[in-house]
Known about the structure:
- The chain has helices at about 5-20, 20-60, 60-65, 70-90, 100, 110-120, 125-130, 145-170, 180-200.
- The chain has 9 helices and no strands.
- By secondary structure, the chain is mainly α.
- About 35% of the residues are buried.
Amino acid sequence: MDLGxxxxxxxxxxxxxxxxxxxxxxxxxxxxxxxxxxxxxxxxGLQLALALHIIIVSCGLGALLASSAVFFEVVxxxxxxxxxxxxxxxxxxxxxxxxxxxxxxxxxxxLIKQGFVVNLMNPKSIVFLAAFLPQFISTxxxxxxxxSILGLTVVSIDSLVMLGYALLGVxxxxxxxxxxxxxxxxxxxxTLFIGMGIALSRAEA
Length: 205
């Protein structure tokens, strides 16, 4: 793959990843609630879903999703419902954050699953990748090699950006020992998750 084309792709990926989305909210929330370890577990789930999206697109199924209104609607509303569910759950959570206890949070597999579902049930991601990735693919070169390079680039950059957002959450953690502040923070993130769910439900293919 031409280095110049790849450089342009890298720049586009940075913009794509920096744009706030459900993954951003989840990364910051996980790090604020359970520290960097929790955020990393959620990040694994996010990237597994992103990798699956890339595989779907490279197999040509992304075009099917973009062209099938019924398929798109089912995935879209399922994802929107899940985000709204997470938002309502955050709104109802009024517990005060115990930094020492949060450091020993168990059930990390749940965070991986949550991150996976958050990213997986976003059809706009697949549709975007289906329109985005082919612009950097040359039919004169092996497709598998090109999709592998582009896929690894997308996942690597998105991982670094989500890690940056997670570190932001870690920085904010020491200020969350007050129950009133925790209730306020939970409502903010609850609102953000619900807002993302509503935004996704209004998305068009």
